[in-house]
Write a structure and sequence with these properties.
Elements lengths: L4 E4 L3 H19 L8 H18 L7 E5 L3 E6 L5 E4 L3 E6 L3 E6 L4 E5 L5 H15 L6
Helix pairs in contact: 1-2
Amino acid sequence: MAKIKFEELNSGGIKYLIILSAILILIGILKPYDFGNPKIYDLASAIGFSFQAIYFSRMFWYKNYVQWNKKGIVVKINSRLGQSLKYDKIRTINFNEDKFEVILEGEDTKEIDVSTLDKEDRKKLKQLLQQYAKPYLDV
């Protein structure tokens, strides 16, 4: 059974990485200090952009990846790109053994195939969907 990499978007360490990368990029662009070697500015920019590339490419490192916060969830299961779902657009969720069917506003339906996933990861994904989408579901 395949495992899912779960990641909450509001985790603290990632925020610091983004802030550090923005500072390095600004130092490389604005050149606020006089260092002896002008190549230091290029290096600072390169490191800052590398941090950004690492941050924004995380979803592509894993075959099965779920990223969420209080407004929405991105689910990538056995595909290159993930499905982005906003909790306030979800109207109904049907949980089956092999797939989760999410019915959105306007009768749009998204299916998440969970047949190849570990049972504990299925349970956690189901719990996340229920927990955050609950206030918006039609009962």
